[in-house]
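Researcher: Can you fold this with iron/sulfur cluster in place?
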Amino acid sequence: MLLIAPPVAKPDAPPAGIALLAGSLRHHGVPCTLLDANLEGLLFLLDQAENPGDTWSSRALRHRHAHLVALRSLTLYRNRDRYQRAVRDINRVLASAVHSRPELSISLANYQDSSADPLNSRDLLREAEQFERSIYTPWFRARLPDLLASENHRLIGISLSFLSQALPTFALLGYLRSTFPHLILVLGGGLITSWMNSRDWNDPFAGLVDHCIAGPGENPLLRLFGIDNACEDPVPDYADLPLTDYLAPGPILPYAASQGCYWNRCSFCPEAAEQNRYRPIRPSTALTHLRQLCEQMQPMLIHLLDNALSPTLLQTLGEHPPGAPWYGFARVNEQLADPDYCRTLRLSGCALLKLGLESGSQHVLDAMNKGIQLDLVIRVLDTLHQAGIATYVYLLFGTPSESIDEARQTLAFTLRNHQAITFLNLAIFNMPRGSKEAVQVGGTAFSAGDLSLYRDFIHPRGWDRRAIRTFLDREFTRHPAISSILHRDPPLFTSNHAAFFSDCFPWPAG
Ligand code: SF4
């Protein structure tokens, strides 16, 4: 079986989804090959890019190979200006790779086509029919026939997790279906799962894809090979991915110790709206996996992919360091306000914690069932800061219970605590299609597409997207204390590279 991670996703780390499937298949004796089409497709486009003639593009093109080498070395991350220039130049070269196709825009983190909606199944199927037009088709032709000929692959599994991957994925499916009609095509991943969880799902890809899989793919894939009794918690297998080619100063090990969320009550959250079940791996098992993978991969950083690291997992990692610095999402809780506990976490390698604060208004937090108290958030931010653990704080504007007054409370809260906040992410609320609130406020789908996951709605307090943008542009981000936090954010890679700017690096050897 050939497992493919399609373009476009941030190219800083090997893809976790296909590595987990490989771990499961190989554990049961099913041979498989992993292909990171995202990374390889990106490097191909950077190699093929032509010079559109402007000064910036010419300079970026000349320096692209030096920038790629620099992005793989920690030295660059010690100089924020040089780092930003390297990322922006690489992105510029990528953009120039499609300069003859004005409808396309491509970056290190995104792929858009103004003539095709990735949330419309008809547009996706058209992308498959017209795969010849895809900017990736020259790479498909250069790479896939030999790879498929060298192994006797019967099945191709494609892991579609992000919207930025949707159009290239369907071009790839179209290429495979037309060139290798005998192959069985399987489509899974987070985005497919969300689509299939929708009440309106009517299997629009049945004529193109042989199997669409919702949720964890390990057992359904094994069943395709006639294996029913799968092991419970496979160890991801990153062995044949090009670990030193990713755009990071050393290998990043992505690892999920759970699926779903142990809290699962926030009213705005797609996890809750899709009623995804919480499936944790026992912390002791997760630790064994991490230590084994650290031994094999010698990662520079572990990215814990959980929606929220459980308190027991955090405690386990604090008491038993996994073997490399690590970061992930955590919920604010009393433990994180304990200085000794946070010092232990820091000593175990905790470089950064991502915290979903959402709002600086207790009223808004309570209305969205966030389950956190602002006085505790203040203590947690301060304790993490004192312990040397960086924070990446997520704020969400425009939830139904917010107005400009509550948004200003968020501004005031952020200003009061700005010294303890290392990075900030600002987002505007999207109403998940299946949420209870979507039913209450009504509205129409965001996109005309049948696969839209969010709804537009008339804000009950008149706090619409345009008003929020104006507030963010003219008030929130204007404040010098906030703009200096925002300025720290690594462009395009954002939280994926943020930990490398912490003083955890270089991590003591051994
Ligand atoms: S804690 Fe995070 S993942 Fe869990 S329900 Fe709330 S927003 Fe969703």
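Model: Folded with iron/sulfur cluster in place. Residues 432 and 454 are 4 Å apart (CA to CA).
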